[in-house]
Each structure stands twice: as structure tokens, then as C-alpha cells.
Amino acid sequence: YTLFQLCDILGPDAEPPATAADLWSLSFAQMNLITAASCGPEVPLPFELLHHGFEYHARQSPYLRAVEFDGRWLSYGELNAQANAVARQLQALGVTVGSRVAVVMDRCLEFPIALLATHKTGASTIPMDASFPATRLEFMLSDAGAHAILSTNRHCDMAKTLDASIDVVSIESATLAKHAHPFTPLQTATRHDEAYVVYTSGSTGHPKGVPVKHAGIVNSATYRSSDLGIVRGARVMQFMAIGFDVCQWEIWSTLSQGATLVLRGGDEIDMLSTVNVLAITPTGLSKLGCPTKYPNLKTVCVGGEAIPTSVKDLWSQHVQLFNCYGPTEGSCTTHVHQLLPGEPVTIGTPISNVHCYILDDNHQNVPIGTLGEMYLGGICVASGYINLPEMTEDRFLVDPFGHGRMYKTGDLGRLLPNGQFEIAGRQDSQVKLKGYRIELDEVANAMMQHPSVKSAAAIVKDKTHLVGYFTPAHVNVDALRQCVSDQLPVYMVPAVWVGLDDMPQNSNGKIDVK
Question: What residues does the AMP-binding enzyme C-terminal domain cover (predicted)?
Fold first, then answer.
């Protein structure tokens, strides 16, 4: 890439560089290449609101199978009618545009019903995995200012203990089927309104809420649907954790196209043999064994972490394998690229209505092939973080190359000469492990809640597991593990624990994790 840059600077009509800094200046021709590669095509959205695609199919093909779980299924018409019944209950509680409704459940038929019902009122959803520790759920409810909670009989009692001031509505699909009536919202949301809030790991010791707009998720959930095999009648697995932003992509990309959403449960291997499309992390994909075990599987979308070349080369011989990149703050997906045997792993080019820049510390474009930090602009950019104005100001900046704002991803990447983008890792303390974003400071903060722990740190070891370090060394590991498990999801609990007499420090007096 250095040679590429020198050839660009020392073209046939160029003056010799006067200083070393001039070696990294951009010619007019290279700047044009960067500009062209940085912007996805501008295209109109197929519909304004996230649930409108589903409602179209509910009207046109009400008997088409919409969702399956544990031997039960609902047609598009049945799912629509049951969501209408819940929407009426929410509206009676005052839920409308600008409200937030927490959906506290595990994976079940009622989960998509709850999401649809909330969107029909104009409100946004806060998907919350009922298996999370109560303290984490309580924080999310309070931080987001939830107006109501939707749950099921299984988790209703627990949900009521989270915040006594919030109304809890328990829903069951079988009961809702008896109360099917049309629903008319008192107020209609717009594409610029909030669709959902997803909580990701946060450096303050608490998760941070990311509000995603309808326009952003509609854009990403409908991009190249037919190329991905998400078409009318296709069977798409809902595989990811329900509190994860990719779950929203799985659900809405499926229901927007008249496909069938197959909710994961029971024997995953048997279920995978019946589906056509799967979104999964590379770690998860590597555990599935030989691709020939799944003859009906036609498309696999991987994301959340880098895919090993060996896994890519194996699976891309049997299925359409797509590398999908995008942070929660970028409406889940900003790049989609098909991976082929023998070819390098990249994330391709920005999807429609999305901009991608590789910038230096002064927010200037770096030369092609040079590492820099990745920034995202366009319709995908979220509105910031809930109740975190300083962090929002630091990560969501004015876009100097377009309109609106751009998001500082913290990912290192480069633009390749072929116009594709490549990710080279992260540059802050936030890491990705098995597809989950984990703020190491949040893990350390949870360890510090143990009454006997004096200092703590967390690191990722061998890219496979979390290690928790703590002082003093005599702290009971079982008690510490339970303390952390009570606060954090299981994927954020260290697998290995190391007690130390003294925590190493750097010259600034901070814990030296290196």
C-alpha cells in the first residue's frame, strides 16, 4: 500500500514531495476514488415504518405461515390480529408515539407479537432477555423510562418486581386469538421516530442504551433480501439472543418479505436442517460441523467477529456465505459482502444510504490501504446514547463529508484498492467475544461489587475466553463468580479467575492490563 501511495503522489505530472507529511497527501484522483467507495447508492426506502412490510403481507397473504416455535405456528393474519389485540391494551395504558415498551420474555411466540403490537401504537420496543440478572433489567427499565412492560405468564411475577410503578401486561398467544379486532393508532410514527432501544456493554459499569430509528433498521433489514434468500416462503432461523440487535434484523428482514421466522428452541441441529437462511457468529458456525448435514440451508450470514479463513473456505463451498458488518449504533448492518473460497475476507462496500469513512485523528481521509478509524454516516446512524450526553458528543459527530452525523466506531480498518473495506480490529477497551460486545471495564466493575475485592481487571485470553483478575488473592472464587453472575449476562462472566496479592500498575497509577 505504501508503493500504491508513492505511485499516486509521484505521478507523471506530480511535483516531488517537499516533506514527509506530503507522502500522505491525497491526489485529486485518489480522493475521487475514496469518495466513490465511501458512499452506498442513494435509494428510496421500500416503506416508512418497520412493521409496514409485515402488514402488507398480512393483508395480501393472511394464511401464509409467519412464525414457528416449539411445534406451534401463526399465520401472517393470526399474528397481525393478535398483535392488534395487544396494541389496544397498550394504547389504553397511554402508550403512543414517544413511549417505550419493555418486552421482558424469553424466546416464544409472544415475542414477535409484543414487538408488532408496540410498533402499531407508534411506540418503540426495549427487548429484554428475561434470563438477565434482575439488577440489569431494573437499570434498563429505569434508564430508558419504560412506560409499560409486556411479558408472559412465565415471567410476569418477576417482571412486576422490577419496578412497581410500571404497568405489566401479560400476554399469551392462545388467549389473544379470542380477541381479534382491528386496531387504529391514535398517532402515527414517522421514519425519523425511534423503533427500538438495544442495550450494549458500557464503560460506566452499566449497559448503555442505543435508540435506533425506523429509517435505519428498515434500510438495513430490507437490503438485498432476495440475494440473501429472504423471500416469500423461505424459512429463516431466529438464532441470536433476543436482547441482541441482530435479533431485530432477523425478525424484520423475515417478516418484511413474507418469509417464515423459525424461532430457535429444542434441538438446534434438527431445526437447522429445516431452514434456508441462518445468521450466526463465526464461532457458532464453526461448531456446526460439516455443511452437508444441512441440505436445506442455502444462505449463512456471519457477523459479530472475524471469521477464520478455514471456516470461510469450508462453508462458502456449500452455501452463499455473507460477511455482515455493522454496530448497534449503525442500525445493525452497514456492510454486506459475499465470501468466496480462496478470496480474502473483507466486509465489502457500504449498503444503500450508508457512508463509510476511514479517517485519521484529525478526521481527515487517510490514503487507500492505510489503517485508520472507521466512521459511519447516512441513514443508519442512531440518535446517540440514552442519558449519556458526554459519550454521545464524543462518538456521534457532525459528518464533514455529508449531511447529519457520523458515528465513531472504534474499529480500525482500511479501504482497499479494489474499493472494498477491511476490518483490522478495535482500538479501545471494548472487545468482541463470540459475537458479543463486551466492555471490559463493566466486567471489572461487577467484580468490584464483591465486598472483599479491592481491585479488579478483565482481559480476553487467546481470543476465546474472559479472564478475571482480582485482589486480594484470598477472595473466594465461587462467591465472586456468583456476585458477577447476579449482575451480568452469562457471556460477560469470566471463565477463568486469577487472584493476585497486588494489581500491576502503570506510570499513571492505573491498572496495567498488559
Answer: 442-510
Fold of 49-215: Rossmann fold (3.40.50)
CATH C-level class of 433-499: alpha beta
pLDDT at residue 20, rounded to an integer: 42
Long-range contacts of 457-460 (CB under 8 A, 24+ apart): 457/503, 457/511, 457/513, 458/494, 459/513, 460/431, 460/433
Domain residue ranges of the chain, discontinuous segments joined by +:
2-36+353-426, 49-215, 433-499
248: nearest Cα among 192, 196, 305: 196
Q: Which residues of 200-230 are buried (b: 16+ CB within 10 A; e: fewer)?
A: bbbbeebbbbbbbbbbbbbbbbbbebeebbb
CA gap 463, 45 in Å, rounded:
39
Domain 2-36+353-426 has CATH 3.90.1150.10: no
Looking at the chain, the whole-number percentage of residues with pLDDT higher than 90 is 74
Residues in the chain: 514
Q: Which residue has better confidence, 79 or 435?
A: 79
Please choose, from the candidates 383, 324, 380, 337, the residue with its C-alpha nearest in 3D space to the C-alpha of residue 45: 380
As a whole number of angstroms, the distance between CA 23 and CA 475 comes to: 55
